[in-house]
Amino acid sequence: MAILADPFISAKIAVMLMFFYFYGKNMSQFKHLILCYLTLLSVNYACGQSSITYDVSELKASLLKSQPDTGRVSTLFTLGNYYLFRPGENRSDLDSAFKYLGQAAQLSAQLHLPDRKNKVLISIATCYVEAGDLESGIVKFKEAIAYYKKVGNKRAEAGAWYSYGSQLKNNNKNDHQRQQLACFESSYKLYKEGGDTKEAIQALVRWTQIQLDRKNNTEAENGLQRIRNECIKIGYFKEFYGWALDNLTTIAASKGDFYEQLFYQLENLDALKKHAEYYTDDGIILAYNRITGLYLALGDYIKAELYAQKELSLTLKRKGDYVFPLDNLFISMLHQGNAEAALRILKKTIKIQPPERPQQVDVDQFFGRIYAAMHRYELADHHFKKAVAEYDALDPRHENINLFTAIYETASDFYISTGQFKKADHFVKGLAAMDKHFTRLQKSELALKQSKVDSASGDHFSALVHFHNYSNIKDSIFNSEKISQLNRLEVVYETKQKQIKINLLNAQNKAHLAETEKANLERNITAGGIVVMFIITGITFYSFRIKIKSNRLLTFKSLEIDRQNKSLQVLVNEKERLLAEKEDLLADKDILLKEVHHRVKNNLQIVMSLLSTQLEYLENKEAVQALEESHQRVQAIALVHQKLYRDKGGIRIEMRPYIADMVDDLDGFFNAGKRKIRFELEIDPIHLDIEQAVPVGLILNEAMTNSIKYAFTNDEGSVKVFVKRTLEEHVVIKITDNGKGLPTDFDLGDSNTLGMEMMKGLSKQLSGTFNIVSNAGVEILLSFPYRDKRIFV
Fold this sequence. Notes:
It is a single chain. The protein is mainly α. The chain is 74% helix and 6% strand.
């Protein structure tokens, strides 16, 4: 039975379908869902009815009392459509639909209501198709279309063509695609001519989907571009705009055009953010995932990490499947040598949201990849074996291609990189058996692995063949990509040059028009003077001189205006030059600042490494303790420079993530988690410059270190960090613990330990106040004036 649905169904369904495709299901299932989705959108365009729930008993009672007029026609039509679109496959419903619709058509003819009659005809045609009599249905559709064409009702004719094409598609056969294309193309043109742009887009979507089904990528791409442009033109950013961009991305991927894929996905992400009322977070997560994958393919690991972090954050917020964002994030981080940070993120993620059984397979292979990057090969081997065993138990027939590929690719990479080629051979052969499902880039990587394994086993000829295949595929992908990008850059450049020429011609045209108007004015004045001289014979010589003087004054003013315009143009050019120099200087400043912070951070890392190395050779506990404290103090300073290096401006540091990272470092260094010591943070969004951030970091490090080391006798308690910005433009920092507190005879003024002296000295450096109170634990209070230097950022 046909389904009655709103033509502009929510974008949530579309996003769900896209997720179904891109996260591991096969193409045939995805196409089936798309057909169901588009079927839901079809019926209202044909009959103009809304999905209203009717009381059938009331309608039948009303029918018994009604007279043979337009009201009875409407009731019969409503009842017929009710049974036609009623859910289920009940033959009696279809018989009832024929009955009421036939009576409606007959009464419409008797009352001479041709519009009503042909509207009913479309529903009757649908009944025939539902009953399996496609030919009779086509006859009725064509009869209605002929009438609407005759009377010039383009909107109704377009709806009839749309319904005709929809019923051909719903006939469960694939042998009417040419007729469907003609139907939807006619519907699109008629809607377009009638100014019904949204309905035209809907018809074009159906036409384009058929081209996609037929693998006519050139025609499909043309249709998708038209859908995209029409949506932008009328500001319609609901489901079809995103659908068009998704399919344009897919076509660009089939051509190996990374630049074009990235262009469409960035446009899609921009639309998702600007028009959040039409979309859900699922769409944004999907866009982040695709953009991350494209940056990974292009080798831009910094941007890939940025978008992967955004995807992971939003996924965890929605308690979704974090496997895909973690996978992309770890690829980008490991390529940048950030294995330790990746390990922290993985542990933190599974602590927040423990993995389910399918996710555990991916989590183990993540651990394997990270430990391999850290050269902890025994742990890596353990996790890879565990991941493979869990996957084989979960999917013994290897039907989940995406999960199979992820496990076997990472395991083979590990064993090849560690020289265990016999173990790698098992996984490489498994991948080769599945290569029909791979992209060209995956096939090239597989060929390289086969070459390495064959070379290690002594089969040099096979290794050479595989390496040749790898080179050919890799060159074809990236050479075509570079050429494509170059062509686009040339087009952009030529377009800009043409625009400059157009602007110049417009300026010249305006100047020419001004000169012409000026010449016409002078000619008119002269002609007027001559006419006046001929008409008024009494004009004296004095009047003539006044006229000459006026002409000279006009000429002088015109020259003065020209001179001022030239001066103004010189000033404008100079301003533009200075602005361009300013942008270059600001960019150079940012680069230099980042380099300074990066080098300072590296130097501090060297100092920390030296301290760590020295610790291994010391046996004196006091010396070890002193070096550990120095290590943490240097770490606090290094963390400031690391944050400033990653900050766009390179001048100010946000305290919330800085303190959170410091807590993570202290937690790991002192095993606070195992001692059941909890950290509670309450931090306002405050940014400090380096002059304030370094002293604050050292004070916080010293205070929290003392709490962790000395406050808790039973290894259990909590440390709270409170950072607020007051109305008086002061920053107040309070560090408290619920430990055993200070000795009863403690006096801050008399305390002369290195740590205490350092905190007091740093407080003075901040021009602030510093105090320690022992009350059910220790409370350290620091207050200092806030300096806002955003003007220099």
